[in-house]
Amino acid sequence: MILVPLLFLALGGLAGTAHFVAIWYDARYRIEGGALIAIVSLGVGRLVATVLILLLAAFHGWPALLAAVAGFMSGRHIVMHRLGRAE
């Protein structure tokens, strides 16, 4: 029973890290004048992946969803810390 929330904690962490790294690349492409297809695909891809993982967690109950959200936000913290923007 405890394995499902732990799995979603890890999955949420991976999804959160990928989500916020994609936001960073999206901002770089917009500033540097990157290809429109890259900007759109990054935005759509990160939103679809996030929604799918959180929906999958929600179908497994509130402990799994809570763990996935906690992992997602820890992914944000990791990315912001690595980029040197967190205070």
Description:
By secondary structure, the chain is mainly α. The chain has one domain. The protein is built from 3 helices and no strands. The radius of gyration is 14 Å and the shape is elongated.
List keywords for this structure.
elongated, single chain, 87 residues, mainly alpha, 3 helices, 87% helix
Secondary-structure element order, as H and E?
HHH
Oligomer: single chain
Number of strands: 0
Total domain modules = 1
User: What is the overall number of helices?
Assistant: 3
Beta strand %: under 5%
Largest sheet: none
**End-to-end separation:** 36 Å
Low-confidence stretches: none
Shape: elongated
Overall pLDDT score: 90
- What percentage of residues falls in helices of 4 or more residues? over 70%
Short description:
The protein is mostly helical. Helix content is 87%, strand content 0%.
